[in-house]
Amino acid sequence: MRLPIEVAAAGAFPLGFTKEDLERKFGLADATAVIRNARLRGGVERIGRGRYRSRALPEDVEGYAKAMEEVRERLLGLDPGIPAALDGPTAVWVWTRGGYVTGTTPSRIVVAVAVPRSKLAEVRKALRGLGADVRSDYPSANELGIFVKLNPARRVERTLLSGIPVISRSAVEKLINSNPALGPALEYLAEPEGPIEVLR
């Protein structure tokens, strides 16, 4: 689910904004092109030199906020019937019971999902049905919304934590040990895993 910049800006800056405001608030690399595209679509208007205002209505902001929360909850509570498992930083978040969060903001959430290559089309369709914008790669730094980054593999080992399918504890430990930025997450890991299921 993509979040249009005019909706995000209307919620954060109801009285107007600058390019720098957007970059700081939403972590955008360079908001110039984002503003230009929004102006071409008619979602943003210029109100002064270097200042802009969103044309999105308050009800648009509320509607998108509610929809994003619903999609987020559906993705993070992934249905075990979908042959996939939460992976990467998302798996670290689940294994630490939300105690270790990386790379998410209220306006940009990327959920990593491990999926067997043989089930790629099925999982992509199921995740799109949940309202997610499904990608093979990370979205660009200037995109806002909720995205799924698919991580295809020949086989995926998963377990259930509170009913949520997530990659195995050993895979999460390996991920944490290979990424120095995640190092402190080891001490927050939850209890031992349940039975391992191998998806092919």
Describe the structure.
By secondary structure, the protein is an alpha/beta fold. It folds into 2 domains: 5-56; 63-199, no CATH class. The chain is 36% helix and 22% strand. It is built from 7 helices and 9 strands, in the order H-H-H-E-E-H-E-H-E-H-E-E-E-E-H-E. The chain has a 4-stranded mixed β-sheet. It has a 3-stranded antiparallel β-sheet with strand order 8-7-9. Helix 5 (88-95) packs across helix 7 (169-178). The radius of gyration is 19 Å and the shape is elongated.
Question: How would you briefly describe this protein structure?
Answer:
With 200 residues, the protein is α/β, with parallel strands linked by helices. It has helices spanning 5-12, 19-26, 32-41, 58-76, 88-95, 120-129, 169-178, and strands at residues 44-48, 51-54, 85-86, 108-116, 133-135, 145-153, 156-161, 164-167, 197-199.
